[in-house]
Amino acid sequence: MIIQVSEPLPRVTPISSRGASSKHRPLLPGLDGLRISAAIAIYFFHVVQAHDAGLMRFPVLDALPESIHRILGSGYIATGLFFVLSGFLLTYVYLDDQGSLKGSSTKFWIGRFVRLYPLYFISLLLLAPLPSVMPMIAKKQSLLDVLGGMSTSLTLIQAWFPKFALWWNAPAWALSAMATFYFVFPRASKWCSSGTRRLIIRRACILSGLSVLPATLYLVINPEGNAWTAVPTTLGGFWLTVVRFHPLCWLPQFLMGICLGRLHTLSLIEQRSRADDPFFEQKETSNAWFARSDFGILLLAFILGSGDWIPYVLLRHGICVPIYILLVFDVANRRGLVGRLFAHRWLREFSIASFPLFALQMPVGVWFAFIVIGRSTGSVWDLLAMVTVTLATSYVAGRLLEQYVTRHLKQWINPR
Q1: Structure letter (DSSP) for residue 229
Q2: Is residue 6 part of a domain?
Q3: Do 9 and 26 meet the contact criterion of CB atoms below 8 Å apart?
Q4: Is the pLDDT assigned to residue 82 strictly greater than 50?
């Protein structure tokens, strides 16, 4: 789903009784840049996590200032932003001005499947032979566990089963969660987008509270004794895995994204109605050089770089939601420094690598380590080369699959 170039809000035709004017909505270039930036932040977190866990060490990471190392190692906070942003974009693209799904649910699901699954399946194939050539990643498990891990991974439901959430392609648990969100979107969007603006805001506030509920309960109950001391490399038990990966723990943030997307659409409808009034003078608001989200980013950087005074589970789950809200709205309207930064054409061009990066970072990284590095410790040049190859592969894969696979599969499954 690529939403390309946008300029300040244009004057467009007034809405009709059927909401046909939804096709005239302004395009949102910054959200593409925000999406790929969130994916890259998560990727760098996985690199630092593997380093801190001793799986693939790069001494240059230890040479970084402690605050920078902390910020790079805290990229997991972008997971919630990615889910909020996904709900926002799906709402903006697939719902009309009345808040109804454009087309049928079946067509929506087919479109999402052909965009998500082919590349994910390729990533599983790339990882399949690795245990035989790299014993370090082999799992000593029973035949029943192997069958369970394979079946849940192949069907993209592994995030629902804590034991198998990271079983085959660990970062792809997020794609498993997204598959769930795609499934519920047609019905969930009706609930999130119906009613008045005040009612939708009230729902968004409730969902914001529910977003932080899993981490809060884990801190209060402390079922595994590590609630206040857990870090990203903590293996944890059943309940920590549930909080980290289960789709139901992330669903409130996705639903909140739907509410935010609907609120943004209602604002555009109001602007179109006013623009049709000859006595109304439209004021340009998208050129603000500094916005609330800029303060939010600075605050977040300070929190991440200053120490571990906020528990990991709380920082990962929900406490950053207010910053997500400000960031998504300001970037959508191209306000402030971050709004302009994420609207840069290079980020928009590279945004097609967002989903491939989730699927391919593990197979590309592990194969790179096996073929190029050939050892558990790499130099600074090894690190730069691995990052470059991973990002470039994700971009090329996104382009090729969009042109030669996704488009043809859509035409074959859903011919016009």
Answers
A1: T
A2: no
A3: yes
A4: yes
Tell me if residue 149 falls in helix, strand or coil. Answer: helix
Structural domain for 281, as ranges: 31-413
Closest CA to 357 of 311, 391, 322, 330: 391
User: In the 3-class helix/strand/coil scheme, how is 41-69 assigned residue by residue?
Assistant: HHHHHHHHHHHHCCCCECHHHHHCCHHHH
Q: Over the stretch 38-68, which tens digit does the pLDDT of each residue have?
A: 999 999 999 998 888 887 889 899 888 888 8
How many domains, the chain? Answer: 1
Whole-angstrom distance, CA of residue 306 vs CA of residue 74: 12
pLDDT, tens only, 222-232 = 999 999 999 88
Cα(396)–Cα(409) distance, rounded to whole angstroms?
19
CB of 233 closer than 8 Å to CB of 73: no
- Distance, CA of 296 to CA of 325 (rounded, Å): 10
Three-class SS state of 95: strand
> In whole angstroms, what is the distance from residue 144 CA to residue 158 CA?
15
Q: pTM here?
A: 0.87
Query: Which long-range contacts link 64-73 to residues 24+ away (Cβ below 8 Å)?
Result: 67/305, 67/306, 68/305, 70/304, 70/305, 70/307, 71/301, 71/304, 71/305, 72/44, 72/45, 72/47, 72/48, 73/45, 73/48, 73/49, 73/232
Structural domain includes residue 64: yes
Location of structure tokens 């009706």: 190
Query: Is 218 within 8 Å of 240 (Cβ atoms)?
Result: yes
